[in-house]
Structures are given as structure tokens and as C-alpha cells.
Automatic annotation (TrEMBL):
InterPro entries: Aldolase_TIM, Coproporphyrinogen-III_oxidase, Elp3/MiaA/NifB-like_rSAM, HemW-like, rSAM, rSAM_sf. Residues 1-231 form the Radical SAM core domain. The keyword Metal-binding applies. Transmembrane segments: none annotated. It comes from Ancylomarina salipaludis. Its main location: cytoplasm. This is Heme chaperone HemW. The gene is hemW.
Length: 377
């Protein structure tokens, strides 16, 4: 099974924390749509005949395209690949785009999962982030989507944001669980280079929140999610049983994926490729047959480290049998030695031949994962 990712590199307004590739000029929307279709055709052999079981429209803001335009891309995938009947087809959408008309038309497409950026329900946070909607508008958008029959909805929320106290975060979570949604992605704010937040941080206009506060927010998130019956299946992702994001899981489970559009990444188990993060250069290269991507061949050891990084992030953990079969006895023993060290500190456990982060270990996941990396001499 494989996945297809479309990067839609447009946003109507720039959020002050976000470094994802996008342009706020929407002029090239139609031209970009044709280029995405052309890239799909040019790279139809990349997945070596594998069936598709997930399509993900991410961005940027995919909901800048009409439902008809989104469906035209799905149909184009169907012209070149076999799409499984029960595929997961996700559209990332900004709450203010989810109007009655939009949702009604979207229900007639093959999109069956929505991922909506809520970030916070507090208007002062949304203003600080330069979002286009209020907390109430975001709440109403989810409710509206449910009335149109969308029953697989994920929301994004950010914690560790300046001005977001533990009390405000608790209120955000309370509202999220009132929505009766199936999936939550919750990220700690990252100060990415070239964002307004990072600029303000450097100038002393905003201040990073204390580590104890953001740790308390993360712990509260984990305990509330458990209380509401959600599985904590990846460091930042929670779902009702059976609603784990199949697309993101394919990244974590080392499946092949083809990424289309500027800045999109692709992986076919041997090679990583990434498209240039520049809309005009991307479109020109696609139209004229020029180069628009770079690639890296993965060494055997790179593949092992990739497996460590992706598997330890999840509740399924690192499969010791898989390591033995795919990477050999040396790496198998290496994993057992590393695991012993972290079993003593109660950061990992071994269950049914899988090394899994404990709740304690999840808080220091970056340290654990980097310690598991095998560095070749
Ligand atoms: C690719 S963005 C697109 C979602 C959609 N455009 C929206 O804003 O609603 C996916 C999510 O990444 C998260 N995100 C983006 N930049 C972040 C940052 N610097 N720190 C933490 N989370 C971030 C946000 O929660 C955002 O909703
Ligand atoms: S968070 Fe979403 S809407 Fe905001 S700039 Fe990033 S991609 Fe665009």
C-alpha cells in the first residue's frame, strides 16, 4: 500500500508561527493545478504499481481550491493508479473556508476525512497567531461539517504558545472534546526560522513559555485524551480507536509515498526526494521538463536510523523481529542493548518483541530516539 501527498502552496493570510511552504498570492492557482496534474503523470511509475490507500491534501491551505478542483486531482490519481475502495482521502481545511456551500459540494467528492486547523479557541491567541477566524467560528465550522455527514474529523491545536496559561489550555481541550471528533493533532509551538514569532522572540516582544508550563500542558493533554477514550498513538497524535491517520501512519510505518507540488517529499524505501520550495521555479520546471527536485540515496545504516526515528514515535514501537529480519543480528543486538539502558530508567518497555516508549519516555522522546541512532565510525 502507498500514499499520495499533494502540497497546496497557497494561504490567504500568513500565520505568524508557520514556516510551511506557501505563497499568499493566489494568482497562480489554476496554473499550479495543471502542474500538479502534469507531475502526477510524469511520476506515475514512482510507486512501482502499488495500490493507493491514502491521499492527503496538505499545505498551505488546500481549501483555497474548490471541491470540484480537489475532485479533479483525485480523478487524475485514479487515471494513473489503482485507488483502494476504502481509501482515506484527507483535506486540510481552514475553518473559515468550511461554509455551507463548500461543505455541501465537498460531500459530493471522494474526500472522507477533514483535518481542520483550530490552534486555540481563545481569540487573543488567534489574533497573536494572525489566524483568519475566531474560536467560535472554528467551533461552528466543525459542527457544520458534522451536519453534512463528515464523520472522520481531525483538529490541530498548538500548546506552549506565549500567553496560553495552563487554565486556558484546559479550556481549549474541554471544548475540543465537546466536539465529538475522531482525531487530534497537538503540537508544541516551534520557533521556526523566518517566522514573525521567531522575529518577535529575538526582539524580546514575546517570551517562550516556561518548560514546566508546556510539560504540564502536554501531560494534561495526554490524560484528558485517555479519559475521553482516545489512543495516544504517536507523540503528537491521538485518535479514537480505528481513526489513526492512515496517511501519517504510512510515514511512520515505512511505506512508500509520492509527494507532489512544491516542497513535497517522496520516499520509495531506497531514496528520498524533495521538490523545490518555490512556486514559480517549480511550475516553470514542470512545464518545460526541467529539474524540480533533489534526492538522496539512503545507505543501509540511514534506513535503520530512519526506522528507529519513525517507529519509536508510535505506540506500536520498534519491532525487534523486523529489525532482525530486515537489518540483521548486529542491529537486533544493538537495539536490545539500547533498550536495556532505557528499561532501567523506565523510559521504554519491551512488549511482545516491540520496544515502546513509556509515558515517562514520551516526554524525552527526542533524547531516547537520538540515543538509539547508530552512528557509523
Ligand atoms: C500544514 S499546517 C496546515 C493547516 C491549515 N492550513 C490550517 O492552518 O488550518 C498543519 C498544522 O501544523 C501546525 N503548525 C504549523 N506550524 C507550527 C509551528 N511552528 N509550531 C507548532 N505547530 C505548527 C498547525 O497546528 C497547523 O494547523
Ligand atoms: S498554519 Fe495553515 S493557514 Fe497558517 S500559514 Fe501555515 S499553512 Fe497557512
Amino acid at each position: 500500500m502507498s500514499g499520495i501527498y499533494f502540497h497546496i502552496p497557497f494561504c490567504k493570510q500568513l500565520c505568524h508561527y508557520c514556516a510551511f511552504h506557501k505563497s499568499i498570492s493566489l494568482q497562480a492557482k489554476a496554473r499550479m493545478l495543471s502542474c500538479l496534474k502534469k507531475e502526477l503523470n510524469d511520476r506515475k511509475n514512482y510507486l512501482t504499481g502499488n495500490k493507493i490507500d491514502s491521499i492527503y491534501f496538505g499545505g498551505g491551505t488546500p481549501s483555497v481550491y474548490s471541491p470540484e478542483e480537489i475532485q479533479s486531482l483525485i480523478l487524475e490519481v485514479g487515471r494513473h493508479f489503482i485507488i483502494n475502495d476504502n481509501s482515506e482521502i484527507t483535506l486540510e481545511a481552514n475553518p473559515d473556508d468550511l461554509t455551507h456551500d463548500y461543505l455541501k459540494a465537498l460531500k459530493d467528492t471522494s474526500v472522507n476525512r477533514l483535518s481542520v486547523g483550530i490552534q486555540s479557541f481563545h481569540d487573543e491567541d488567534l489574533i497573536l497567531m494572525n489566524r483568519r477566524h475566531s474560536g467560535q467560528q472554528a467551533f461552528d465550522a466543525i459542527k457544520r461539517a458534522q451536519t453534512y455527514g463528515f464523520d472522520n474529523i481531525s483538529v490541530d491545536q498548538i500548546y506552549g504558545v506565549p500567553g496560553l496559561s495552563l487554565k486556558k489550555w484546559e479550556e481549549n481541550l474541554k471544548k475540543v472534546f465537546e466536539l465529538n471528533i475522531q482525531h487530534i493533532s497537538s503540537y508544541h509551538l516551534m520557533y521556526d526560522p523566518n517566522t514573525v514569532f521567531t522575529h518577535k522572540l529575538k526582539k524580546g516582544i514575546i517570551k517562550e513559555v516556561d518548560e514546566e508550563v508546556s510539560l504540564a500542558q502536554y501531560k494534561h493533554l495526554i490524560s484528558e485524551a485517555k479519559k475521553h477514550g482516545f489512543l495516544h498513538y504517536e507523540i503528537s497524535n491521538f485518535s479514537q480507536s480505528g481513526f489513526e491517520s492512515r496517511h501519517n501512519s504510512s510515514y511512520w510505518q515505512q511505506k512508500m509515498y509520492l509527494g507532489l507540488g512544491p516542497s513535497a517529499h517522496s520516499y520509495n524505501l531506497n531514496r528520498r526526494e524533495w521538490n523545490i520550495s518555490d512556486n514559480l521555479k517549480y511550475m516553470k520546471a514542470i512545464e518545460e521538463g526541467g529539474a524540480y527536485s533533489e534526492c538522496e540515496e539512503l545507505s543501509f545504516n540511514d534506513k535503520f536510523n530512519d526506522y528507529v526515528l519513525t517507529s519509536l514515535r508510535t505506540m506500536w514501537g520498534l519491532d525487534l523481529e523486523l529489525v532482525k529480519n530486515e537489518f540483521g543480528e548486529f542491529y537486533h543486538q544493538y537495539c536490545l542493548e539500547k533498550a536495556n539502558k532505557f528499561i532501567q530508567s523506565e523510559d521504554v518497555r519491551i512488549e511482545k518483541k516491540h520496544i515502546i516508549l513509556t509515558d515517562k519516555g514520551v516526554f524525552i522522546s527526542n533524547d531516547v530516539m537520538s540515543d538509539f541512532f547508530y552512528i557509523e565510525e
